[in-house]
Design goal:
This protein has 391 residues and is of the alpha/beta class. It has 14 helices and 12 strands.
């Protein structure tokens, strides 16, 4: 039995999503920008998808901009907000955290090269930023705050509502990367107090290569690309109608299934986690266990190299990861775990298990039977394992 426990990297396309997309590859192939009936069928599909995504987020359809995914949405939010702030030097400061996805961190580093000052606020030992630390980082020239909703590696939920209130009091734009929370947690952009929010279809059973950026009414951003007038002049280019339809259907299914999916997945996650903690000496959970998305468990197995363990488990038919998929192959340990206070060695000995809509109890039983044995085998090969387990 193959067991897929890497849903945070990507999810399978739901059959209902695929069924919704297929007609727009063939008979309904019209360009959504064309005025004839073939094009208007595409336009109607894009409009329906926009309404579905808006409903998932508690937004207006006019506030949704379709993109190629979470990375583009993050780039458009940060670069676009900074560019729209004007050219005066007094309005060039951004606040973010040290545990953001690289789609935010690397944008911030590029902004620094352009002369924008960026404050990277550290997190506590549970991998959660303190709202007061965000408040203290603000300056009169601050343009934007960017904080993720749920961390992609630990699942820890950040205090977005509190930060939203801080941003509103200061009159500062607030961007939230919600790629890992959309479809897993209820989202309401008004309650969260965000100005901009990013999501990606392939993290919630939609296709790869499509996402969306929520832009609150009245918020101005400069486009990254220049061309046609699609997406209300905010993201030019011919709309990818099949993918957008897939995102819309995925958003619809997420709204319908969230109440049932979350408790079932949480119970399976907890069962896996508790069993591994009981049966693997020295194992412990990384990150906040009281406030996290229901599908994610990041576990430290001292004395067992994470990359080697991923390979060993893959040979057993179990797919998991050491962290973010965009960092796979990197020789560096997880920046998220390092910023939460783990040593290099412990960060390299940690695995992320992420469950999903299709995870079964039988798959969890299979993982529970295989993972402790794999850890034990790797520890036996490591001369450092005895001391590591005893820490």
């Amino acid at each position: 039995m193959n067991v897929y426990l890497d849903y945070n990297a990507t999810t399978p396309v739901d059959p209902a999503v695929l069924d919704a997309m297929l007609p727009y590859f063939a008979r309904n192939f019209g360009n959504a920008g064309s005025v004839h009936s073939a094009g208007q069928r595409g336009r109607a599909a894009v409009d329906a998808a926009r309404e579905s995504v808006a409903a998932l987020l508690g937004a207006k359809p006019s506030e949704i901009v379709f993109t190629s995914g979470g990375t583009e949405s993050d780039n458009l939010a940060l670069f676009g907000a900074v560019a729209a702030s004007g050219r005066e030097a007094s309005r060039k400061h951004v606040v973010t955290t040290t545990i953001e996805h690289h789609a935010v961190l690397n944008v911030c580093r590029e902004l620094e090269k352009q002369g924008v000052e960026v404050t990277f606020v550290p997190v506590g030992g549970q991998g959660v930023v303190a709202p007061d630390d965000i408040r203290r980082a603000l300056r009169p020239e601050t343009i934007l705050i960017s904080v993720m909703h749920a961390n992609n590696e630990t699942g820890a939920i950040q205090p977005i509502e509190e930060i939203g209130r801080i941003a509103a009091e200061a009159g500062v734009l607030f961007h939230c990367d919600a790629v890992q929370s959309a479809g897993k947690l209820p989202l309401d952009v008004c309650r969260l107090g965000v100005s901009l929010l990013s999501i990606s279809a392939h993290k919630m059973y939609g296709p790869k290569g499509v996402g969306a950026l929520y832009i609150r009414s009245g918020v101005s951003i400069e486009p990254l690309l220049h061309g046609g007038r699609q997406e209300r002049d905010r993201r030019p280019g011919t709309e990818n109608v099949p993918a957008i339809v897939g995102l819309g259907k995925a958003a619809e299914l997420a709204r319908q299934s969230l109440a049932d999916d979350a408790p079932r997945i949480r119970a399976l996650r907890d069962r896996l986690e508790i069993s591994l903690l009981e049966n693997i000496p020295g194992a412990r959970v990384n990150g906040d266990t009281s406030r996290r998305v229901p599908n994610t468990s990041n576990l430290l197995f001292p004395g067992a190299a994470g990359e080697a363990l991923v390979i060993a488990l893959d040979l057993e038919g179990i797919a998991c990861s050491t962290g973010a998929a965009c960092s796979s192959g990197s020789i560096e340990p997880s920046h998220v775990l390092l910023m939460a206070g783990l040593s290099d060695e412990d960060a390299r000995s940690s695995l992320r298990f992420s469950l999903g809509r299709h995870t079964s109890a039988e798959e969890i039983d299979r993982a529970i039977s295989a993972i402790p044995a794999a850890v034990e085998r790797l520890r036996a090969l490591s001369p450092l394992s005895a001391g590591a387990v005893g820490r």
